[in-house]
Write a structure and sequence with these properties.
Rossmann fold; 7-stranded parallel sheet; about 55% helix; 6-stranded mixed sheet; nSTAND_NTPase5_dom; alpha/beta; 42 helices; single chain; Novel STAND NTPase 5 domain-containing protein; about 800 residues
Length: about 800
């Protein structure tokens, strides 16, 4: 390969780069050097920032001398300080940097980038990338995540674009004042760039990443794509000053000394040749391969360990590396489920659902089943849970490949799994899925899997056979701690009597895992840790991880400024057994441990961290990211839940919401949760107004109507007058709208039904509904019939029992009234 022979890139790195490029996983960041050689709209060849500064200094008679005359931010700052000068400067920029003609830059447009980010203001790129598949954004435009079908290219102008100066005269970022202003008001694209930069692979061309004051904080974090994802990042420059190359290496970039023209021509030729080695397939299957590689991680029997994992036997979260080292004990149901999935039968769609409570072995069982299928010749793909996947393309992949798709902790994406199953049923194609979820979210997941007969693995209560297998496995590894000399029968008795069959408590007491809790307490008391902001990092991690989410890297780096995040949890750190880093960010030992840590935190610090986390993620929580169910959105959704806020902050709960009003006032869920909080606190007028606001924002969605319906029927019961009766029937109508909208979108859910039944049972007992009995009775009959016909409620015995219980209560209430 040319990039190996000419530019000294290691063979393994070159392979990783080409594979990542093919999968549209590499970002391209362009500086002034990437526009060298292009011809401006005024016929002048484009050059670098220093050349432009000198030209502006001469053209506008500023009289600056070197080095000031070559300092573009300084020169531009002088020009834009007066309105007339700024108008003339903008006209100059429009003439020079609009309708540019590319030369070698056309090669850039031929390669399949994840995104193209540019620090330049010329439009050279516009004619390099096919217009039909490109989306162009300025830094000040609303943030928009990539569509699930990734067949387009987004180009983001981080410093503005000269061709847009007529429409937006202030869109350029050149002067120090503009840099500082930009840094204070982080827009969505700036924030998205930061998120990509610190963890995803980049090729930087023609940008020295110096004096980019608006991006200084972002760039100073460095790029950790190799550690956090596996693929390296490069910086391509014509030359490097003494010590500069080493500085780039420390920031996670491989320095490549080359002209952009030469390097990207070599890369293009290498990529063209590399593609010949890929087996031929259909365009649809090619797209499916890209989708599965970007949204899923392939599990292999032997994989290079990119980062340290925690001790499996100290109640830490299970990782694939633990399974490949055979540290787990496969439970009986796990083995049987693996055999069932591996056996080819007439049923083309096979789904295994693993469930249990906290630290019951869900992840271990899920990954063990996957490991057994690998032995049977299956590919195994673990969902990354960074955002929704495209159901059609994953169905296409499963149709052609002997594979199993794995969703550990699947509840947030169970509706997408439902779509994947529906697609496979329609096409009569094969599909194998392993999914796991926590018990408290089990029923909703089962509803989404109701189209198929799935195999259920219930890990609780643990059987005696499985417990003894676990006991003996730990004995084999010398990890029984206080029970090292205990017999099997005595251990079982100890487990049942002393710990009531709770696996977490038993495991924690084997080797005094409570020492981890003691360590947290000492960290909170240690002033040195407080001064290093490490305590804030731990609290912020617990804040997110108690819900099962990693603290996103973009925030983890912010909470630990000037500290190498990778070193905080390494083997030499005081925190090496407390937490770790995964593909998405920072996590503590387990969700149970994170809940413990969060509960130990002083309330004022919890308030600050929770609020800061939501505010920091706000720029990338937009309608499209909500639809895509991106990781930042899921974190914000969990933190914004009114039950969580009420539990965390008590009387300060509404104040917490009020501090987010300017940021999230556009969001219906924000008003829904605030309405539910107000309703719980019997602030009925506010609850009603907030719920109405939510509906006004999102009229065609069922959730706001359910919230308004619940608020109204609750008010209807509480108010003992005609206004209360009117409000009750308004609520019933809102619940009906919610029901109809959810059915229309094939996303029916049980809450409109259960809310109606619960509050109607209360209404029939209230004196102020005395004149409404006939209407209540007829409405009840209608709702009960609809509920019995609903797949959401009646798909299992639990749902049918719930309806029967409601009906019995209604009959008793109707007789007594």
């Amino acid at each position: 390969m040319e990039i190996i022979e000419k530019y000294g890139i290691a063979e393994e790195d070159a392979k990783l780069l080409l594979e990542a490029l093919h999968n549209k996983a590499i970002n391209l960041l362009l500086g002034a050097g990437a526009s060298y050689g292009a011809i401006g709209g005024d016929g002048i060849e484009l050059k670098g920032g220093a050349d432009l500064a000198q030209e502006l200094n001469t053209k506008f008679n500023l009289g600056l001398e070197p080095p000031d005359s070559t300092n573009l931010p300084l020169v531009y700052g002088d020009l834009e300080s007066t309105p007339l000068s700024k108008i003339a400067t903008n006209e100059f920029f429009q003439a020079r940097y609009n309708k540019c003609k590319p030369t070698w830059q056309k090669t850039l447009g031929k390669l399949p980038w994840k995104r193209i980010w540019t620090l330049n203001i010329d439009d050279t790129l516009d004619s390099c990338v096919e217009k039909s598949i490109s989306e162009i954004y300025l830094w000040c435009d609303d943030y928009k995540p990539r569509a699930l079908k990734q067949n387009g290219t987004q180009i983001i102008y981080l410093h503005g674009k000269a061709s847009q100066l007529k429409e937006n005269p202030n869109c350029l970022i050149f002067s120090l004042r503009e840099y500082l202003s930009r840094n204070e008001n982080i827009p969505g694209w700036h924030f998205s760039f930061k998120n990509e930069w610190i963890q995803k692979p980049f090729i930087v061309c023609g940008a020295r990443l110096q004096e980019e004051f608006d991006l200084e904080v972002v760039l100073s974090f460095g790029n950790q794509s190799r550690v956090r994802g596996g693929c390296p990042s490069l910086i391509v420059l014509r030359s490097f000053a003494p010590g500069q190359a080493e500085r780039y290496r420390k920031r996670g970039l491989i320095p490549v000394k080359a002209d952009g023209d030469q390097f990207f021509s070599s890369l293009d030729r290498d990529y063209t040749e590399w593609k010949k080695s890929i087996p031929s397939s259909t365009p649809l299957l090619d797209m499916a391969k890209i989708e599965i590689l970007s949204k899923f991680r392939e599990l292999k029997p032997e994989q290079t360990l990119l980062r340290r994992t925690l001790d499996f036997y100290s109640s830490a979260e299970t990782k694939w590396e633990h399974i490949t080292q055979n540290l787990d004990f496969p439970f009986f149901q796990t083995v049987k489920s693996a055999e069932w999935l591996a056996t080819e039968t007439e049923s083309k769609i096979k789904v295994t659902l693993v469930h249990g409570g906290t630290v019951s072995g869900k992840s271990a069982a899920t990954l063990r089943i996957a490991a057994e299928l690998l032995k049977n010749g299956h590919e195994a793909w673990l969902f990354r849970a960074e955002e929704r996947f495209d159901e059609n393309t994953i169905a296409e992949y499963s149709k052609h490949k002997k594979s199993v798709i794995i969703f550990d902790d699947c509840a947030d994406f169970s509706s997408s799994i439902k779509g994947l199953i529906t697609k496979s049923i329609a096409e009569k194609s094969k599909l194998k899925i392993i999914a796991s979820c926590d018990t408290h979210r089990l029923r909703a997941v089962k509803a989404d899997l109701s189209e198929v007969n799935f195999n259920e693995v219930n890990l609780e209560p643990i059987s005696r056979e499985d417990f003894l297998g676990l006991f003996n496995k730990r004995s084999e590894k010398g990890r029984l701690g206080r029970l090292s000399k205990t017999s099997e029968s005595e251990a079982w008795k100890d487990f049942k009597r002393k710990y009531s069959g709770h696996l977490l408590e038993w495991l924690e007491n084997l080797e005094n895992a409570h020492s981890f809790k003691d360590a947290i307490a000492s960290i909170f008391r240690d002033p040195d840790f407080k001064s290093k902001n490490i305590m804030k990092l731990i609290v912020a991690t617990a804040c997110c991880h108690r819900f099962g989410y990693s603290l996103p890297y973009m925030l983890a780096d912010e909470f630990s400024p000037n500290i190498d995040l990778e070193s905080i949890f390494d083997e030499n750190s005081q925190l090496h057994d407390i937490g770790y880093l995964d593909d998405r960010g920072a996590r503590l030992r387990s969700t149970a441990f994170s809940k413990f840590v969060w509960n130990e935190v002083p309330s004022d610090l919890k308030y600050k961290i929770s609020l800061s986390t939501v505010k920091s993620l706000a720029p990338v929580v937009v309608p499209q990211s909500i639809a895509n169910r991106t990781a930042p959105y899921l974190v914000v959704r969990a933190l914004m839940d009114h039950e969580v806020i009420k539990s965390d902050f008590g009387k300060l709960a509404d104040q917490w919401y009020s501090e987010l009003e300017k940021i999230f006032g556009w969001n219906a869920r924000f008003w829904e949760q605030r309405a539910l909080l107000a309703s719980d606190e019997n602030r009925d007028s506010e609850a009603y107004s907030y719920a109405k606001k939510a509906v006004s924002i999102l009229e065609r969605d069922s959730f706001p109507h359910t919230t308004l319906g619940k608020v109204c029927v609750k008010i209807g019961i509480a108010r003992k007058d005609e206004v209360g009766v009117d409000r009750f029937w308004e609520g019933v109508e809102e619940l009906r709208k919610s029901r109809e909208l959810s059915i229309e979108k094939n996303l029916e859910w049980e809450h409109p039904y259960t809310t109606f039944f619960s509050y109607t049972l209360k209404a029939i007992q209230e004196p102020h509904f005395e004149k409404e009995l006939e209407k209540l009775s007829s409405t009840w009959k209608e709702w009960m019939q609809a509920a019995r016909n609903s797949q959401t409620l009646a798909f299992d015995s639990e749902g049918r029992s719930t309806l029967e219980r409601f009906q019995r209560q209604w009959l008793l209430s109707a007789v007594s009234s």
